[in-house]
Amino acid sequence: MSKHFFFFLFLILSHQSLVGQDLQLYIDTVYAPENGQIIVPVKCNDFENIAGLQFSLKWDTSHLHLNEPTDFGLPFLSIDNFGTTQSSQGILSFVWNSDIAQGGESLPDGALVFGVKFDVQDDCTQTSTFKFTDTPSEQATFSLINNDLIEIPTNYENGTIISFCPVSIPDILINEPLCEGDTSGSISLFPQGGIVPYQINWSTGANGNQLTNLAGGIYSYSITDGAGNTLSGTIDIPDGPSLAISLGSDITSCDSFYQLVALTTDTFNTYNWYSGNNFLASTTSPEIGVTSEGYFSIVAMNSPSCLATDTIQLTFPQPFAASISSSKPVACEGDTIILNAMGAAQVEWMNGVEFLSSSSISNPLAFPPLPTEFTAIVSNECFSDTATIFIDHVIPFVEASPDTCIVSGASIELFAVGGDQYKWEGPAIGPGMDTSNIPVIRPTADAIYIVQVTDSYGCTALDSVRVEVVENTLEGIPHINTITPNGDGKNDVLAFEGLDKFSNYKLTVFNRWGNIVYQKFNYKNDWGGTHNGKPLPAGVYFYVLSTHNSELKNSLTILRD
User: Fold this and answer.
1) What is the band of 95 on the pLDDT scale with cuts at 50, 70, 90?
2) Is residue 257 classed exposed, middle or buried when 0-12, 13-18 and 19+ CB atoms within 10 A define those classes?
3) Nearest-CA neighbor of 452 among 421, 423, 409?
4) pLDDT tens for each residue of 463-495
5) 132, 240, 297, 554: least surrounded by Cβ within 10 Å?
6) d(CA 415, CA 404)
7) DSSP designation for 3
8) How far apart are CA 134 and CA 153, in angstroms?
């Protein structure tokens, strides 16, 4: 004997009716995808101390095919509580009872009692009703109250199974922009299938089935139907038709008038012309005559008001006078100067090119080693002219004092010639004397003085003077005791070796009676035995070579043939 038999026997012998507690069993609406699977939920409200349930379920077998009961929400509930012998007819029976000894079971409102899994047939347009029925299991619900099994009223609410087709977009309306680069394009989507309403979102952030004010490009969309099914995709809107017009390359004209003509394979209605930013004229053909140079633009427009533009530079070269300038009027020895040929952009140097860094630029470096005339031919696209410049070559001159010797503690005046400006470097130069051409110095030790001379052209040259400082300037000067002034170039004059290094010497020559026959300050080794321009007689004489602090005395014999 089955356990259901004992359950029903117990109910027949023991149950009482209870008024005031209504159990609600209901089935939600279920959306069924074509050829998919669904779970039909049996839910409850006011499920309190329930000890037993029994009812049957019925469905449309042309719509659903039973797979299995599932998702059991009660204790002691399993596949064994279901009768499936009539499932081919769309009937499923259900009987359940709790452990009476433990009392009834309770579930929160909206809880799942159990679910039934079905395979959905391939008709995506079908809708059917999922019903509670009392055949073959009679509908009954019992509650355990104070150990009494009480039958309570139960409300049964049927459900609806709605099949749906996949969301699709059979129609997409695309309007590309009228002109290249504008935003007159649009997209309209017309989805079908799924469960309405549709929520359509675009990559631009817009919503709805229509997207407007679009430029050419790729746009993404996402469609979500009422059941949460989604469909995504992208749409590529072509840009508007590309238009082109060309004025060609920049133009140089040797005439004072030029006819600008634009070329195009597109069709335009009007052509607007501009000089710079200034409007010139509107024409019906792509050409216009101009008499001034500058930048000219054409704006061509067709019937949808789409535009094509181009700009050209027109140049009318003018006559000019060529000239050449130089960074310096002369070239000093070893100098590099910059020449600059002016008047036009194209330059070809003709004369002096061997002394130029380039013969084809306007501003070459020049390094002439001698006076040179440079000639350049200057030209533009229409005219040419010749210019010449003469660059003198200056070798600066400088001559400074000869090397000399002074007594320690004495001062001496140096000199330099050859320029307009002087700059001395060395020790013990008097205040303000370093820029003089005759500086006074008082060195305390041997020194070399360097002078830089700058002439009127800015050319410079260097020279130096060695100054030896000694305690006695006559020390080391040899004693000369004989001269033979006969014109043979040997011993013709009284010459003291090393005397030319020094200055401020005084030479005095006496005859035997003590008369002065010759006297010379700053003696230069040039006395040849004369007195007042006449030769002295041969014989013995005496001389004194002196400085401010020492003397050299000796006899001197003049020998004549």
Assistant:
1) very high
2) exposed
3) 423
4) 999 998 887 777 778 899 999 999 898 999 999
5) 554
6) 12
7) H
8) 14
Residue 502 pLDDT grade (very low, low, confident, very high; cuts 50, 70, 90): low
| Residues near 489 by beta carbon (within 8 Å), at least 6 away in sequence | none
Quick one: DSSP state of residue 426?
Answer: S
Contacts of 488 (CB under 8 A, 6+ apart): none
Whole-Å CA distances, 33 to 152, 233, 415: 37, 21, 119
The strand order across the sheet containing 365-366 reads: 323-326, 337-342, 365-366
At 432-470, the pLDDT tens digits run 899 999 999 999 999 999 999 999 888 999 999 999 888
Distance, in Å, from the CA atom of 37 to the CA atom of 119, rounded to the nearest integer, reads: 5
Predicted confidence at residue 423, as pLDDT, reads 95
Helix, coil or strand: residue 363: coil
d(CA 483, CA 87): 164
pLDDT tens figures, 204-250: 999 999 999 999 999 999 999 988 889 999 999 999 888 999 999 99
Measured CA to CA, the distance from residue 219 to residue 204 in angstroms comes to 8
Average pLDDT value for residue range 18-31: 82
Q: What pTM does this model have?
A: 0.49
Give burial (CB, 10 Å; 0-12/13-18/19+) of 471.
exposed
Residue tagged 């600008």 (tokens): 260
Residue 95 in 3-state DSSP?
Answer: strand
Q: Where are the beta strands (DSSP E) in 121-254?
A: 127-133, 140-145, 148-151, 154-157, 159-164, 168-175, 185-192, 199-202, 210-214, 217-224, 230-237, 251-252
